Predict the structure.
Amino acid sequence: MPIYEFNCKHCNYTFDKLVTRRDTQEKCPLCHGKVTKLMSTFSVGASTDYAGNLPPSTGPKMCTTC
């Protein structure tokens, strides 16, 4: 079940929602106005076996500032 990002046309509120059915019309949780589905980004991760076999320059980057 995909998670979609929506934006309300009336109050400009942006929210994410797990959508279980395609044929349902989503509404804004704040004002119950009409919403539009936004183009969302996604990430792809590699398994640890695959990532471990990559050269250090192409492997997954770890955050060192958090």
